[in-house]
Amino acid sequence: MHHHGYSWLGEKKTFDRESIRRPPGQAPTATSEPDVHDRYREAVTMFPTADVPPLQTSHWLMKPASMIRGTWEEPKEAGEWLGHQLTEFAPRFASDEDRDTARLLLLVAAAIERLTWGGDVSLGHYMKGTVFHSVALVTCSPNLTTRGLRCPARIQH
Asked: Can you give the pTM of this predicted structure?
């Protein structure tokens, strides 16, 4: 088991585009509404390569390996990376509560605990202005949420 880290910083309106954040699923039928066809086409085209966080955290594993920001065998190492991400962006978080150092330390500790038993971690923060920051740690080989997903980048031992 190992853990991959992902991060994204972008406009909130892009983050809100649900069709690019979910895999296409089943194709619409001939009787489906036109907007259903449009959303499906957008998902087919955009989801595989869009760096926008997927709706389900484990679906990061469906993305190209080039989107991985780090890989760690130990949960503590992955948690340290998460801590660096939060520390780097915290001064720009819109909420005073989100910038609280004690709270950020608790988030990192909880993330390490979750990774220890094979869970995934996904955090998002509104930034000042119209920007959203997302950071995720995804357990791989296997992922407990979506066991059928293959690892996008095996680590070398």
From this structure: 0.91
